[in-house]
Design a protein that fits this description.
Belongs to the GMC oxidoreductase family. By secondary structure, the chain is of the alpha+beta class. About 30% of the residues lie in helices and about 20% in strands. Strand 45 and strand 46 form a beta hairpin.
């Protein structure tokens, strides 16, 4: 089904115009789509865009099918074709092997693989064909002649096609589309046509004995001689009669498949992709076929080996139509057979050069004007390349039939022709020239040499070009040698017949006073002819068996097993033709294609709409019809990509492209979490993997300025998994986007769903990590930018892990990647500016990390981006506990949000923060799930107090950590009172989670009896408890002869150290901030945050940076306060002693104090990368408690990779088996044990504790 688009319609008759530029003067029209918009599957895939491919694309699109057309060459419209040799030389592609039969010989492949002109050198004959959207129709001479009756009755044709008129309906259909017409009588007769007409009688006389009946007439040709719309709706221009057809004509008069069948296919919704060289075809495991192709765009040819081996693919669900031309289709099928697709042994056999001969009637005695140029004299035009024919096909033996046509030399070759013709051997000079005539010929030759090819009296202006089509022996063959095609022609032209034709042309030339010169290739290429009309290679079988051909009469490819065919795999180009036609073949090729496509449609029940006539088509606009959405399952992604591309193009934006190859090892399995371990395991399993991806930024300014720095990825990923190679389309590439999960870190990310040849979808996520750890190290910088950490997952299975590993860029591949870089724009200045913008951005991003210690510091800001992005639930209540010494602190309370059963009693947890922080370390607003979120969701009522050495104004009063125990006792008392008021019964024990200085203060309160152990259900002590032992760096700082606190007092005159700093601070603070850039936190922990640096000086490094997300690190000033010199001195003294001491330095760890902890369950947790307290300090606690009280009730848990505060402030704390899970299990265990005891003692009277409590006037409980 098809539906009309909402694109604007062209009103009335569109104004005639050439396709030089669009209305904005920015580009030529493009009906081809960027490969980035290729879908994974279509109903129909058409290979090639010549006559056969054009027919298939148009008719299938009109049949309501989703159609993808792949063309090796580029899209060119009139105005884009070369006119000089310099331009044409860049478009030449030479392949083949002149010693094809010699196994030792290696075929060549040189020049531009997507170039317009493809010369294949063969043994015995060479072939010249065209590449580009439109195929050889871009370069042919437009002659539309039907095959004669005698040729169609030859034995090589299936019986159905030998019937008279069998192809007529399809010829008629082709004529209706291509609209051939003869050169008008009202236009000046070209001189080359006049000469050919005059030579007809000579041909008649020459062939009188053989019974020749030559007929001269003007050929029907697909050239427009008047302005107007063609059959498809494209506006055409009248021919300017330039003779440029064979290198591409720029006047808009040539009726190629581009402006007919292909434009029609596009208008009916076909999607066309250029620079896609199809290499082979395989059966799809479920339905249809996989068409593998090499994409030559995005400078992918910088990786030549990968381009031809790491092939992209598209799935054809119903049909594959092969229309890549005789040479292209045969090569594809030979390679497909070589790669496992069973085919007939006739593939590559029975080929023909169509009996083509090229020759020159040089330096005749009359002006011929056969040298093409862009601006001919209207009164003396060159004319189309071919205008007339001497038709000698009506012979008793059809093999003796031939045609002679005149030709023209395109301007790009005219300046080379004179020296070439003069140098060639084997000339046949006219007999009986007088001395004067000989001198006149020499003079004419000098005039062409000195004055150029267009001098009217020069020899080239008097040179006729002869083109002959006849019959050869159909004994040519193509093979693959070293994966490259090699042609071998045997019995070219049937030697006697060839000699007769050459003799005829020599007489025709001599009769007009000229010198006969055989085709230049005949002399330059070891006396080999050249054909521009190769046919065969996938010839139709005369009886439908693989012994007689490679396809059925309808082009259906035979499997090689009897008459079995590959359903939906159909050849529709010259490769199908089983014999030379003795005339220009494209009319017959087109008719055969129309016949084959119609038969295929009937077979599948597809109705082709031949009747609907297009309105005016504007190739700058949108097609009239689009396929039904039912055909596709990726509409949203396509629409998004289309919008991005269209927006950039409409605004004339400049883009950037480059291609990248990365190789490495990926372990398949979900049991290994670590990338390095997975990489090593995969390497031992030889589970290599690699990708070949092209990056396209459609708007470079957007790429460098947008926050996500996004570009588009296209290519393949390959490994040992089933379904490899995986297609990558419209993947996301992010160039140095900020990593929200890590501070001061940017990532190059590769993120996309990719689809396998088995239709399985795998998600690829790869990250290159660039951060300050690379500072001043070229090797680390290279490693960071060349190592990709890859995770594969299944999106349909909740992104379950498929595999992990690492890919790397090698130095050689990096060099090729640089060579693939290109800036795209409409002029050189724009491209230069675009390249500079991209490279400046790339360099600055790398330099930011490479020079991290020297870059701008990150200062606190009053504006916090994404204030509370996770919409945290605020505290349910705020309390103000008053300690026994009268100091009042704050405490927040959160009611549970889940996890409770009806009527179940709520249990309480008190979270005690450390020094210079407050409740926010547990209720952090910058992570998705903090500790308060986690434990309230688990059904617990959570409390968190800020004691006097925390982030509070009280901290300025010069308290010690020992003093903070009073605030913890007051907080516990407040919670107990709340329990009594809520339940009307004795309070139950409370679980306490305490961190750092809070944990130390808790231990001291328990040890000296300020906090009764009976009030507590259990304790989780984070990173330290009774034995504060410093890491080596902190211990060194504490052991300095002059304490750092004393140095700071003298340097700043202050007894307070603030972990934050502002730009308005005193110069002494600014100097300190600059010096702290070089604090030895370790290469892996460099950053630019002022708050982070200052906290490191006071306490040591508080976290592993890779555990903090960017939002947290950027806002550290919100979460960190300061510390008095008194508090710091107390911490230093405890660190030096290695155990807790009170404010006066008295030891609290004697046996009597320790006895107070009996029966209290204690969980000790620590981060293995703790840089404040040595991780072993919790081991001291653990061993001392077990030694004193036995093993029951004590545990010690390590968290790999965590540091100090990040045990609570990192996103990873909430992951499975993370900090929260481990602590919760201990808390659940404690409350379960308590509830069990409570049920046993439910009738026993609750005994109060020995502490007394009072309630002050504010309702605050005081100990």
């Amino acid at each position: 089904m098809r539906s009309k688009t909402n694109s604007a319609k062209i009103e009335g008759e569109p104004r005639a115009r050439t396709f030089s530029r669009d209305a904005n003067g920015s580009s030529f029209p493009r009906i081809g789509r960027p490969v980035e918009l290729l879908r994974h599957s279509y109903d129909v895939v058409v290979i090639g865009s010549g006559y056969g491919g054009g027919v298939a694309a148009s008719r299938m699109a009109r049949g309501g099918q989703s159609v993808c057309l792949l063309e090796r060459g580029k899209e060119r419209w009139p105005g884009e074709f070369p006119t000089s040799f310099k331009d044409a030389a860049t478009q030449i592609h030479v392949t083949g092997d002149e010693n094809a039969s010699d196994e030792r010989s290696v075929p060549i492949d040189r020049g531009n693989p997507t170039g317009l002109y493809h010369l294949m050198i063969g043994e015995g004959q060479n072939a010249f064909v065209g590449n580009g959207l439109g195929g050889t129709s871009l370069l042919n001479a437009n002659v539309f002649l039907r095959a004669d009756k005698g040729t169609m009755e030859k034995d090589e044709w299936p019986e159905e096609l030998t019937q008279e008129g069998a192809l007529d309906p399809y010829y008629d259909r082709a004529e209706k589309m291509l609209e051939p017409e003869t050169y008008p009588e009202n236009l000046p007769e070209p001189l080359k046509l006049k000469l050919l007409r005059e030579q007809t009688d000579l041909v008649r006389k020459y062939g009188r004995k053989e019974g020749w009946d030559p007929k001269f007439y003007r050929v029907p040709q697909t050239t427009k001689f008047a302005d107007g719309r063609n059959s498809t709706g494209i506006e055409m221009k009248a021919s300017t009669l330039t003779g440029q057809d064979s290198t591409g004509i720029n006047d808009g008069s040539k009726t190629t498949t581009l402006v007919t069948y292909l434009a029609d296919a596009w208008n009916w919704g076909a999607e066309i992709f250029c620079e896609c060289e199809v290499r082979l075809i395989k059966k799809h495991p479920k339905e249809g076929y996989l068409v593998f192709f090499a994409w030559h765009g995005s400078r992918r040819d910088a990786f030549k080996e990968e381009m031809l081996h790491d092939l992209m693919w598209v799935h054809a669900k119903k049909f594959v139509f092969l229309g890549a031309g005789t040479l292209g289709t045969t090569e594809i099928m030979l390679r497909s057979k070589e790669r496992g697709l069973p085919l007939s042994d006739r593939v590559g056999q029975d080929m023909s050069g169509n009996g083509d001969l090229l020759a020159f009637g040089y330096n005749t005695n009359a002006e011929v004007n056969a040298m093409g140029h862009e601006d001919p004299n209207p009164d003396n035009p060159v004319g189309p390349t071919i205008t007339g024919v001497i038709d000698c096909r009506e012979q008793e033996n059809p093999l003796d039939g031939f045609v002679i046509e005149e030709g023209a030399v395109p301007r790009a070759l005219t300046h080379l022709l004179q020296p070439l013709l003069l140098s060639l051997p084997g000339k046949i000079f006219p007999p009986s020239l007088t001395a004067v005539e000989k001198q006149q010929q020499k003079l004419a030759a000098w005039k062409s040499t000195l004055l150029g090819p267009y001098h009217a009296q020069g020899s080239l202006a008097r040179t006729q070009v002869y083109l002959i089509m006849s019959h050869d022996a159909n004994q040519a063959r193509m093979t693959l040698k070293h994966n490259k095609p090699a042609l071998e022609f045997l019995g070219v032209g049937r030697q006697k017949h060839l000699e007769k034709l050459n003799d005829l042309m020599s007489k025709m030339t001599n009769s007009s006073g000229g010198t006969f010169i055989q085709n230049p290739f005949y002399a330059d290429f070891n006396q080999q002819e050249i054909t521009v009309h190769p046919v065969g290679g996938m010839s139709m079988s005369v009886d439908g068996t693989p012994e007689e051909g490679a396809t059925t009469q309808f082009g259906e490819v035979l499997t090689g097993k009897g008459k079995e065919i590959y359903e939906g795999l159909i050849v529709v180009d010259g490769a199908l033709v089983p014999t030379a036609l003795g005339v220009n073949p494209f009319a017959t090729i087109t008719a055969l294609a129309e016949r084959s496509v119609a038969a295929a449609a009937r077979k599948k029940g597809i109705t082709i709409d031949y009747d609907t006539v297009n309105g005016p088509i504007d190739p700058y606009g949108n097609p009239t019809y689009v396929p039904s959405p039912d055909h596709f399952d990726d509409l949203a992604a396509i629409k998004k990509a289309e919008a991005e591309i269209d927006e950039a193009r409409a605004a004339g934006k400049a883009g950037t492209i480059f291609t990248e190859v990365m190789k490495g090892y990926i372990h398949i399995g979900d049991e290994i979490d670590d990338f390095e371990v997975a990489f090593d395991q995969a390497r031992s399993e030889t589970a290599d993997a690699h990708f070949y991806l092209s990056v396209h930024a459609w708007d470079t300014n957007e790429l460098v300025s947008r926050a996500d720095h996004q570009a588009m990825l296209t290519g393949t990923f390959s490994n040992g998994m089933e379904g490899s190679p995986f297609m990558v389309s419209r993947g996301d590439f992010h160039l140095f986007n900020e990593d929200h999960h890590a501070p001061d870190q940017t990532n190059l990310t590769y993120d996309f769903d990719m689809i396998g040849t088995n239709d399985e979808v795998i998600h690829f996520n790869g990250i290159k990590v660039v951060n300050p750890t690379v500072a001043f190290s070229i090797s680390r910088t290279w490693q960071a930018t060349s190592s990709l950490y890859v995770t594969l997952s299944r999106p349909e299975d909740n992104h379950s892990i498929v595999g992990k590993g690492i890919l790397h860029i090698g130095w050689h591949d990096f060099g090729r990647e640089l060579s693939s870089f290109d800036a795209l724009g409409h002029n050189f200045r724009l491209r230069l500016r675009t390249a500079a913008s991209f490279l400046q951005y790339f360099t600055s991003q790398v330099a930011t990390s490479f020079l991290a210690p020297l870059t701008s510091l990150q200062w606190p800001t009053l504006q916090y981006p994404g204030e509370d992005p996770y919409k945290k639930i605020p505290p349910s209540k705020t309390f103000s506990p008053q300690a026994i010494d009268g100091e009042v602190t704050l405490m927040k309370m959160w009611e549970p949000t889940g996890g409770l059963r009806d009527g179940e009693k709520v249990h309480d947890i008190l979270f005690v923060p450390g020094a210079a922080v407050d409740h926010q370390i547990y209720a952090l607003p910058t992570i998705k799930k903090n500790a308060i979120d986690y434990f309230t969701a688990a059904g617990y009522r959570c409390w968190s107090n800020t004691h006097r050495v925390g982030k509070t104004p009280l901290a300025h009063k010069h308290f010690t950590v020992y003093d903070a125990r009073l605030d913890i006792a007051a907080a516990l008392s407040t919670i107990r009172l709340a329990q009594e008021q809520q339940y009307g019964s004795a309070p139950e024990p409370i679980y306490v989670v305490a961190h750092c200085a809070g944990s130390i203060a808790l231990s001291m309160g328990l040890l000296d009896g300020t906090i009764p152990a009976s009030w507590l259900r259990g304790v989780t002590a984070s990173n330290v408890f009774m034995f504060p032992r410093y890491t080596p760096l902190n211990k060194w700082k504490a052991s300095l002869p002059v304490h750092l606190t004393d140095i700071y007092r003298r340097f700043t005159g202050s007894k307070w150290f603030d972990c934050t700093s502002k730009k308005s601070d005193a110069y002494t603070q600014h100097l300190l901030n600059q010096l702290l850039r070089f604090y030895p936190a370790g290469w892996n922990e460099l950053c630019t945050s002022v708050a982070c640096h200052r906290s490191e000086l006071a306490f040591g490094r508080l976290w592993s940076h890779d555990r903090l997300n960017r939002a947290t690190h950027d806002q550290l000033d919100r979460f960190l306060g300061g510390c008095s010199m008194t508090c710091l001195d107390h911490l230093v003294q405890m660190g030096l002693h290695g155990k807790v001491i009170d404010s006066d330095g008295c030891d609290l760890l004697d046996e009597d104090h320790l006895q107070k902890l009996q029966g209290l369950p204690i969980q000790l947790i620590y981060g293995t990368e703790n840089a404040v307290f040595d991780p072993s300090c919790t081991l001291w606690d653990y061993e001392r408690l077990r030694q004193k009280f036995g093993e029951q009730g004590y545990s010690r848990e390590a968290f790999k990779g965590h540091g100090h505060l990040d045990c609570w402030m990192s996103e990873t704390a909430a992951v499975k088996n993370g900090v929260f899970d481990v602590v919760r299990r201990k808390i659940d265990e404690g409350f379960d044990r308590f509830m069990s005891r409570s049920r046993k003692n439910s009738r026993r009277k609750t005994v109060g504790n020995s502490m007394t409590t009072v309630v002050n006037g504010n309702g605050i409980r005081r100990v």
